[in-house]
TrEMBL record:
Highest taxon above the source species: Bacteria
InterPro entries linked to this entry: CheY-like_superfamily, HATPase_C_sf, HATPase_dom, His_kinase_dom, HisK_dim/P_dom, HisK_dim/P_sf, PAS, PAS-like_dom_sf
Family assignment from sequence similarity: In the N-terminal section; belongs to the phytochrome family.
Organism expressing this protein natively: Paenibacillus darwinianus
Protein's name according to its UniProt entry: Circadian input-output histidine kinase CikA
């Protein structure tokens, strides 16, 4: 039963407070909410906010009288149905009655009124108000229920449509799918199949219905699936994907993927599976795997071939370069000296070619790594300039560099690679500039707090770069012009290597195109701020080395020119060529090449050291068993027993404290070769061709370590 529980508001409007009190006295005990107003305007304001059951309205009021107020009430949609009872004390009753009813009053009373009559009329109107409210609530409820029924009907129609649509789609999918779809029970008896079965297996629907699923997929059953899945909800909902080998009607098998799920219908488990023929995919994967293996084999073969070529070239070049260097220190006339210098330079040029090819191959294969160390940018640029001082003085070239004051601080990056890029770019600038200047500018691009973006600019006043040749820049094995290759030499790998190194350091490189004279290369690197606890390294320690991907022909040329520019320096050079012998050290050289044996003996003799030769690793072990040596120079590739295995056997045979330090002296220069040597227990790595100064420096470090841990060289 519908009830009305809202408040019952009665609006009392009279300009005399005494009249309002009289009305309140008559109606106050009827549990109505009496709202009193002293003007028509005030009454209208209340009607805007609240709902009223009846209005008791005085006719004669100052300002807006009762008739005007009633007109406005009846003109408003929300309030026009509220009953109005006029109360008046005027003698013109008939005229007032007519006017009151005309403006919308439903009743009329004159003062003084009879209280009981007023109460009865008010109660009658209130009962009508309550009945109307109940009727409105009932109407609203009926309307709401009607809407709900309409919505439910629409949902039912939509569901029926979706069900019909889904069934139609499922039927189309089942009938047109290239995959076989099967349902079967717990015993494995097939219940339904789709037309793809005949195309895939060669069976008709009648051939397989009520037959075991193992007819098509040997070993498959609902019970096994439940046992393997442990009835887990995830497997029941998402299904399981299995690789199977189904059997066709002719007995042949094929690769397939089977996706299977289970549903419960009337307490009975029903299995549904889809069988997809993946034979072509498997064949493609097999071909892809074979291609990948072939590519890996080719890459290994390429690496092995380059390593072999490097070894085979470096081994004789060790003799050529080493012997020519020793020969230069003997008494010769100027013509002989010139010929020997040509031999040395030719050897260095050939070594440069193989270095560039090896280094580019290492970058191409992704084996180049970043080594971050703290350093001063000014030191790195200054030391690069030092390498070209002799040559630029000879060519009368001006060199200079500027560094942003914001970069007057230590930074952390790969100083070796940065230095190599600068050597290459500055070397090119020196090579292609006959007059004028070469400048390097460094500035801070971005400061991100923890790291910095730094821009370096290398510019010259040389021959410049033709605009049509710009696309060839940074391409491997490319020269801007074949005549340049003949005139200036080079492999065409320098800028390509620079580009790769800069990208490894998080930067980019480009060349300025709009220049009237010369060339300008601009590159960026990303560096870190130095933490206060990190030591700053001497960048000179990170100079050119055989396993770094940058050309050093200009550096070598500068060194040779420096040696030849002043004959007065030869006496000092000779004085430094020997280690002051407080007692002759004894060195074991394990080397199978006769030329390199001879070269090693001559160099060690020149350094004031005694040396024995072992032609292979086995002879080296035999000599170490009976003699005491201060240092072992061990080749990696030797017949009978190679250097790596000989080192391992040595540490297995002798106590660690009795083993002399072992240094690899080898033509194998790839990073993995160095890692193999250190992993075997060697203390250092010296790549061929061997330079006398490098050998002297290495021996000084190790000979000075007698009586301490010989496995680690002094810094």
């Amino acid at each position: 039963m519908i009830t009305f529980e809202g408040p019952i508001n009665i609006l009392l409007v009279d300009d005399h407070p005494d009249n309002l009190l009289a009305l309140e006295a008559v109606l106050g005990d009827l549990n109505y909410n009496l709202v009193k107003c002293m003007s028509g305007e005030e009454a209208l304001r209340h009607l805007l906010k609240d709902d009223f059951a009846v209005i008791v309205l005085d006719v004669q009021m100052p300002g807006m009288d009762g008739f005007e107020t009633a007109k406005l009430i009846k003109a408003r949609e929300r309030t026009k149905e509220i009953p109005i009872i006029f109360i008046t004390a005027t003698s013109k009753e008939t005229e007032h009655f007519h006017t009151g009813y005309a403006v919308g009053a439903i009743d009329y009373m004159t003062k003084p009124f009879v209280p009981q009559i007023l109460r009865t009329k008010i109660e009658g109107f209130v009962n009508m108000y309550i009945s109307n409210k109940k009727l409105q609530l009932q109407t609203d409820l009926l309307h709401q229920k009607t809407k709900e029924l309409e919505k439910m009907n629409k949902e039912l129609l939509r569901t029926a449509y979706q069900l019909t649509k889904t069934e139609a789609q499922a039927r189309v999918i089942r009938e047109t799918s290239i995959d076989t779809m099967i349902t079967f029970d717990e015993e494995g008896r097939m219940m339904t199949v789709n037309p793809a079965l005949e195309r895939m297996f060669g069976y008709t629907e009648a051939d397989v219905l009520d037959k075991p699923i193992t007819l098509l997929v040997p070993g498959l059953s609902g019970i096994d699936i439940l046992a393997n899945a442990n009835g887990s909800e995830s497997n029941r909902e998402g299904g399981r994907l299995m690789e199977v080998m189904p059997v066709r009607s002719d007995g042949t098998t094929f690769f397939a993927e089977l996706q299977i799920g289970v549903a419960v219908v009337d307490s009975e488990r029903i299995f549904a599976c889809t069988i997809s023929d993946v034979t072509e995919q498997k064949l493609f994967e097999r071909k892809l795997m074979e291609a990948k293996e072939a590519a890996e084999i080719a890459a290994r073969a390429k690496t092995d071939f380059l390593a072999m070529v490097s070894h085979e070239i470096r081994t004789p070049m060790n003799g050529v370069i080493g012997m020519s260097a020793l020969l230069l220190e003997t008494d010769m006339n100027e013509e002989q000296k010139e010929y020997v210098e040509i031999i040395g330079k030719s050897g260095e040029a050939l070594l440069l070619v193989i270095n560039d090819i090896l280094d580019y191959s290492k970058i191409e294969s992704g084996k180049m790594e970043i080594e971050e160390v703290p350093f001063e940018l000014s030191d790195c640029i200054g030391e690069t300039f030092d390498l070209f001082t002799v040559k630029t003085k000879k060519q009368d070239l001006e060199m200079g560099y500027t560094i942003d004051p914001l970069l007057d601080m230590p930074i952390v990056s790969d100083v070796t690679k940065l230095r190599q890029v600068l050597i290459n770019l500055v070397g090119n600038a020196v090579k292609f500039t006959s007059e004028g200047s070469i400048r390097v500018n460094a500035k801070l691009l971005n400061d991100y707090g923890s790291h910095l973006d730094i821009q370096l600019r290398v510019e010259d006043t040389g021959v410049g770069i033709p605009e049509d040749k710009l696309p060839l820049l940074f391409q491997p094995f490319s020269q801007l012009d074949s005549s340049m290759s003949r005139k200036y030499g080079g492999t065409g790998l320098g800028l390509a290597i620079c580009k790769n190194l800069i990208e490894l350091m998080g930067g980019t490189i480009s060349v300025e195109t709009e220049r009237k004279q010369g060339a300008a290369f601009v590159f960026t690197i990303r560096a870190k701020r130095l933490l206060s606890s990190e030591p700053i390294v001497d960048t000179a320690r990170f100079g050119p080395s055989p396993d770094q991907p940058v050309s050093f022909s200009d550096f070598l040329s500068s060194m040779e020119e420096a040696a030849a520019c002043d004959d007065d320096l030869s006496g000092g050079s000779s004085a430094l060529s020997r280690i002051p012998p407080e007692g002759r050290g004894r060195i074991l050289v394990a080397e199978d090449n006769e030329v390199n044996q001879k070269l090693a003996l001559l160099m060690l003799e020149k350094l004031g050291l005694d040396a024995d030769i072992a032609e292979n690793g086995r002879q080296a072990l035999a000599l170490l068993a009976v003699n005491r040596y201060d240092l072992v120079l061990m080749d990696m590739q030797m017949p009978v027993l190679d250097g790596i295995e000989a080192t391992r056997l040595l540490f297995e045979t002798f106590p660690n404290e009795n083993c002399p330090p072992i240094v690899a002296m080898t033509a194998n220069v790839l990073p993995e070769d160095k890692e193999k040597c250190l992993a075997a227990g060697m203390s250092d790595f010296l790549s061929k061709p061997i330079r006398l100064d490098g050998l002297r420096s290495l021996i000084n470090r190790f000979i000075a370590l007698q009586g301490s841990n010989n496995k680690q060289p002094a810094p």
